[in-house]
Structure formats: structure tokens, C-alpha cells
Amino acid sequence: MLQINVIRENTELVLEGLKKRNMRDAESLINQALAVDKVRREKQQQYDAVVGESNRISKEVGILMKAGKKQEADEMIAKMATSKKSAAEIGQEMAAAEEELQRILYLIPNVPSKDVPAGKGAEDNITVHTHGHIPALPADALPHWDLIKKYDIIDFDLGNKISGAGFPVYKGKGAKLQRALINFFLDQAAQQGYREVQPPIVVNKASGYGTGQLPDKEGQMYYITEDELYLIPTAEVPITNLYRDVILTEQELPVRNVGYTPCFRREAGSWGAHVRGLNRLHQFDKVEIVEIRKPEESYATLDAMCAYVQSLLEKLELPYRKLLLCGGDMGFNSAQTFDMEVFAAAQQRWLEVSSVSNFETYQANRMKLRLKNKEGKTQPLHTLNGSALALPRIVAALLENNQTPDGIRVPKALVPYTRFEMIDAR
């Protein structure tokens, strides 16, 4: 989250940055935060003054008692009791102001970096790179939701039967393709120096607040009421929260982790042709990379993470484009985000398969994650994460783009993992 001292000392810059997000209530939230902060600081001054006076009286009582002036000492003790009562009352008011300030700060998104363009939505994103050739499919080419039925590899009806819409069942070569992609992505990440971790797929409320999914995305997360736990929307949440309330040393940096998890999203309000088949699910598999870096390294790291994700898409022989997201289309926590979209040739549609983001200090402030430098002082760190990769739309594009009269061709890079070269009717 944004630190109140940053908001207080750079109010106009913060407001100017938040304008990129096309936020209607940005100025109102900032003004609320500043007003509550003013009250909090005033109460702090009052509290310090009263406690200081109480300490002064306490010392005076000791002097009077030594001097045998009991009556005067008793009068001062009574005055000290009044001061202590006043300090307790002011302390409660100060704590209430602290709590209200924290609540407001949680509602304020990250300030976009200077390179992020202003904009309202996806139409204002900027294409910064394209790669590959869009395959020319025959007129009778099928979208993936028909291909999966033709080859009996993914079953939405069975998933609906046992869970509900948006929970597919992968079968036969469909299941093997899923496993192959997961292992391929994990192996590629290991070769790039990422350490594999296998985190829990449920998290507590503190973890949700730590990475910023709460309160912003509370309605999009599945909640286990009795245990007060959330099913994770992405491995970013548990992997990044491994470092909540942690002070790292120089020797422990950089942190570079990768993890595979199933992910769960309610996707409330989603509808239309763009959510058909694998395009949008309630449960899906994803491999996530997470890095923790010094501030001066984070934007070079963002570029390197993007390049790594792009290399995966190239190895899968998928045409893709890289987009710099505008302020209005960026996630709540992000300072800068690049999306990777692949082209699904039968749908004639670009599908987002990865977001790679730099959060700067936003998550680290929420998690109280710090670096202790060589001088023994603590300083903020930057967190970054990226999908490397999310499986459903990758599978959709692979199926559609590689369909042939004989079946669906498997990209060469995956064959050692699938142990078959074609998905066919056999």
C-alpha cells in the first residue's frame, strides 16, 4: 500500500499518478486519508504531551516523598492519576484513528509508474511487440470447444455434473497435455534459476491483505466460512506471503521462486462469447514466477521476466503480442504491467495468457517486508510476479492453431513431456 508519509509529502504527484487509472474517487480517498492522518498525528502529540507530563509528575512525587512532604506528594499522585486516565483515553482515540487510516489506505491502489499510459480500458493498451505468424486455417476449422468434444479430451458436462459450470474434467490426452505443460513450465523455470516451491492453495485473511487481493477482490475469491480461509486466485498470494513480516539480508537477495498451483476465481459477472470453453474458468492450473528485488533492480527484472515468458510462448510456437497496460486496465496493486496475448486462430481472437507486473513497494509495505542493508538499516524492497504460464488459454490456442486433418499436432518442445506427437481420435 501507499505509505501515508508519501501521500502527505507528495500529494499532488500521487493524485496525478492516480488520474492515469481513471479513478473517480481518488481525490476523495486521498483527502480522507490526509484528514484522518492529521487527527492521528494530533492525538499522538497530545498523548506524548500527557505522558511526558505524567512522567514529570512521577519524578516530582519521588522528590517530595524523599523530602518528607507527603501531603504535597499525595496531591501530585492524584494529578498523575488524572494524567494517566487522560493518556488512556487519548490512546484509544489515537488507535481508532490508526485503524481508520489503515482501512482507507487499503482502498487506495498503487500509483502507476511514469511509463504507464493513461487510459480507461483495454482499448487504450499499447502493443509494444509482436511475434510469430498467425496460421491460416481451413474454412471448416473448429474452435477449441468443438475440438475437445471431437477428440474427447476435456469434458465440461462432467465438470458441471460434479461441481458446476467452469470446472472442466481433463481426460486421456487432454489430462496428459495439462501435466506436460505444467512440467515443461516448471523445468524451464528451474533452468532459469528459479527455486520451485509448492505452497498451500488456501490462505488466511492476512495473506489476502498482504498481496492486495483483499479488500479489492474479495467478491471474486472463494471463501471457506467456517475456517475463514480463501481459495487462492493465483500462486502469487501464498508464494509472496512467504516473506510477510520478514527482514531479508543482502545475501538472501534476489528471491526468485516458481510454483505450480490450481487457481480459483468466482469470475462473478462474466458473460458472453469471450468466456466460452477454456477462455474463462472457475478453476484452472497456472505456473507463477515471483521475484523480490532491490528497487534499483526491479524494472530491469521486469524486462527479464517478460523476456522469459516470451521465450516460453516461442518454444510453444504460438503467435503472441506484448501489451503495456494503461492505467485503467492495470491491476489494483501494480505499478506497471505487461500482458502477453496469444492468437487463437479458429476464434480469431487474442487471448491473455500472462500478466507480468512490478508492484514496487506496494505489497512489501502491506507485508512489512524489508531489507536490512550493510549499514544495519532497513529499506523497502520491490516485489514482482508473472504468469509463466496460465494453462487454459494456452491449451485453447494450441488446439486451435495446430489442428490438421489427421488430428492436433503437439509442439516439438512438448513432445518429450506428452510422449505423443498428435492428439487424434484413437
Folded structure, characterized:
42% of the residues lie in helices and 21% in strands. The chain is an alpha+beta fold. The chain has an eight-stranded mixed β-sheet. The protein has a three-stranded antiparallel β-sheet with strand order 5-7-6. The chain is elongated. The model has no long low-confidence stretch (mean pLDDT 95).
Mean pLDDT: 95
The tally of strands reads: 19
Count of runs of 4 or more consecutive helical residues: 13
State Rg. Answer: 27 Å
- In whole angstroms, the N-to-C terminal distance is 54 Å
Q: Describe the largest sheet.
A: 8 strands, mixed
Kindly name the structural category: alpha+beta
Order of strands in the sheet with the most strands?
1-11-12-13-16-10-9-4
Q: Uncertain spans, ≥5 residues at pLDDT below 50?
A: none
Assembly form of the protein: single chain
Shape: elongated
Helix content: 40-55%
β-strand amount: 15-25%
Question: Any chance you could write out the topology, listing elements then pairs?
Answer:
Layout: H1 4-9, H2 11-19, H3 26-66, H4 70-105, E1 126-131, H5 144-150, E2 154-155, H6 156-162, E3 169-170, H7 173-191, E4 195-196, E5 202-204, H8 205-211, E6 223-224, E7 229-231, H9 236-241, E8 247-249, E9 255-264, E10 283-293, H10 298-315, E11 320-324, E12 336-344, E13 349-358, H11 362-367, E14 370-372, E15 378-380, E16 382-390, H12 391-401, E17 403-404, E18 407-409, H13 415-418, E19 422-423
Parallel strand pairs: 4-9, 8-14
Antiparallel strand pairs: 1-11, 2-3, 5-7, 6-7, 9-10, 10-16, 11-12, 12-13, 13-16, 14-15, 17-18, 18-19
Summarize this entry quickly.
This protein has 426 residues and is of the alpha+beta class. It has helices at 4-9, 11-19, 26-66, 70-105, 144-150, 156-162, 173-191, 205-211, 236-241, 298-315, 362-367, 391-401, 415-418; strands spanning 126-131, 154-155, 169-170, 195-196, 202-204, 223-224, 229-231, 247-249, 255-264, 283-293, 320-324, 336-344, 349-358, 370-372, 378-380, 382-390, 403-404, 407-409, 422-423. The strands form five sheets. It has an eight-stranded mixed β-sheet with strand order 1-11-12-13-16-10-9-4. Strands 5-7-6 form a three-stranded antiparallel β-sheet. A three-stranded mixed β-sheet has the order 8-14-15, with no helix packed on it.
